[in-house]
Amino acid sequence: MGTAEDDQSLAAFLATVSVGDILTGTLAGVTRSQTTVLLDDFADDPIGIIDSLDLSWRSFRRSDLKAGDRISAGVIALDPPGRRVWLSRSATENPQLWAYLKALLPGQRLSGTVAAIERFGVFVDLDEGPNHPVFPGVGFITMPELSWQWFEDPAEIVSVGQHITCEFLAFDTHNGEARLSLRATQPDPFQQFARDVHVGQILHGPVIKLVPFGVFVRVADGVEGLVHLSELAASPIETPDQAVQIGDEVTVVITDIDAPRRRLSLSRRQAR
């Protein structure tokens, strides 16, 4: 905790700094988890912090930096209460990539080619984007952002070499990626479904997933609802497989519709 004078000095300095700025300074300390920087324009305290993931997009490992080294880094976040300026050295290692990502706007449509499909998401080689120093594409789609529909393998939604158009969500400063959404370019089937149905309505569909607290049932294309364990059978059960299995066709009744959160509650017990 600094003195009132120190706090005023820090506030005055932070008022001149914005996310995306490039700052220079001297390394004050280097540990496995983070590096502290004494910034040229604020020599009172080593408030610059570089997380280990932000040292380099090329290696993602601790570099050979040492205290006393001079560096330049991009500002990725400001934390006045914590007396910290979070920095990324990767920004100055890859100025073309950093500038491209920083200029993107949320909601902007970007096109590219699916470069790789992993169990955690999909890499996209953007048409207008630069190459990434590590990954096969500078665009990345997480699993939830691939589709409104239920799926287990991202290869069910896209294929390598496919040309797609996505919506830009955010600049991932740690990985140097453009986080994208493919599903945002398509109508949300849940919203139309929610307008067409009502609590108490009887529906039919297959069980698509068993979880400890119940099962999910597909009641329309791209729309799944949860049948809680307590609503699966007339008699109490301990696990969902005591009542149903994946693929079983079941009859359910709607007990609640939460359109903003895209949640549909169903009951198999009350539908009998």
From TrEMBL:
Keywords: Ribonucleoprotein, Ribosomal protein. SUPFAM superfamilies: Nucleic acid-binding proteins (SSF50249). GO terms for biological process: translation. Residues 20-90, 107-183, 200-269 form the S1 motif domain. It holds the Pfam family S1. One of its GO terms (cellular component) is ribosome. One of its GO terms (molecular function) is mRNA binding. Coiled coil: none annotated. Binds mRNA; thus facilitating recognition of the initiation point. It is needed to translate mRNA with a short Shine-Dalgarno (SD) purine-rich sequence. Belongs to the bacterial ribosomal protein bS1 family. This is S1 motif domain-containing protein. It comes from Actinoallomurus iriomotensis. The lineage of its organism: Bacteria, Bacillati, Actinomycetota, Actinomycetes, Streptosporangiales.
